[in-house]
Amino acid sequence: RRGDAMTENPKTPVEAVTLGLYLAITAPTEEKAQECVGIAESIARSANLSGHQVDTAKAIASAMAELDPRP
């Protein structure tokens, strides 16, 4: 379900990376997933996110995907 608070407008680079990774995990195709990963990586680089921040974004995105009710 896209449209909850997290997927509307990320307010920080960490939120944007988290969203990009969540979209990658839930993407309908590998091509779309890779596109989302590339965008998330670009945001992380341009915002100079630390490894810890990226790891946190990965963990949150993974948890979001596990809670996603879509098949």
Keywords, separated by commas or semicolons:
mainly alpha; 72% helix; globular; 71 residues
Describe this structure in words.
With 71 residues, the protein is mainly α. It has four helices and no strands. Helix 2 packs antiparallel against helix 3. The longest helix is centred in the middle third of the chain and has 17 residues. The model has no long low-confidence stretch (mean pLDDT 90).
Radius of gyration computed on alpha carbons: 11 Å
Number of DSSP E strands = 0
Q: Unreliable stretches, pLDDT < 50, 5 or more residues?
A: none
Number of helices: 4
Question: What is the percent of helical residues?
Answer: over 70%
H/E series: HHHH
How much is the average pLDDT? 90
Structural class: mainly alpha
Instruction: Please report the distance between the alpha carbons of the first and last residues.
Output: 11 Å
Largest sheet: none
Oligomer: single chain
Strand content: under 5%
Shape: globular
Summarize this, please?
With 71 residues, the protein is an all-alpha fold. It has helices spanning 5-8, 13-25, 30-46, 51-67. It is globular and about 35 Å long.
Produce the secondary structure layout.
Elements (H helix, E strand, L loop, with lengths): L4 H4 L4 H13 L4 H17 L4 H17 L4
Helix pairs in contact: 2-3, 2-4
